[in-house]
Amino acid sequence: MKDSTSNRSAKVSELIAFNIGEQQFCLCTTSVREIRGWTPATPLPHAPEFVLGVVNLRGVVLPIVDLAVRLGFPPTQPTARHAIIVVEVGAQVAGLLVDGVSDIFTAEEAQIQPTPEIAAETAKLYLRGVIAMDGRLIGVIDIANLLPATELAAA
Fold first, then answer.
1. What percentage of the chain's residues is helix, strand, coil (to nearest 5)?
2. In angstroms, how far is CA 34 from the centroid of its own chain?
3. Burial, 146: exposed, middle or buried (Cβ in 10 Å; 0-12, 13-18, 19+)?
4. Which residues, other chains included, contact 79 with Cβ-Cβ below 8 Å and sequence gap of 6+?
5. Residue 2, in any domain of the structure
6. Rounded percentage of the chain residues whose pLDDT exceeds 70
7. For residue 104, which of 4, 15, 24, 33 sits 20 to 30 Å off, Cα-Cα?
8. Per-residue pLDDT tens for 66-76?
9. Could you tell me if residue 128 is inside a domain?
10. Domain enclosing residue 52, as ranges
11. pTM, whole model, 2 decimals?
């Protein structure tokens, strides 16, 4: 009889997949507090280019990050069809503007392939790796590097 404990020791993560343009990305659900529809943000002077502004989320001022800009893509023109993924990293809470959330799935750590060496340093900074699944490649976001507290504190 085969020992099934080795299968249980594999680290499995629950991930939420979302779109930015034609690209698919995901992040671990443990960082996600909620998903909400697009709400126009109040711009802030001297905020980093990727910070659209802030919104009031039940009494908490929440910075909204245009994830497309943060990842080096053209700026998003938000509509009612866009979504905000509210994430928490340490004490920092922020909203990530994405084109839409597609699904929630599980993946073993072994399924996450390293970011290719040829990728730009910034891509390797923001991506933990890539998952090949169902004929598509999904970039795995490294949320801790994506939302440095010092830059958001300026917002």
1. 20, 50, 35
2. 12
3. buried
4. 38
5. no
6. 85
7. 4
8. 999 999 899 99
9. yes
10. 13-153
11. 0.85
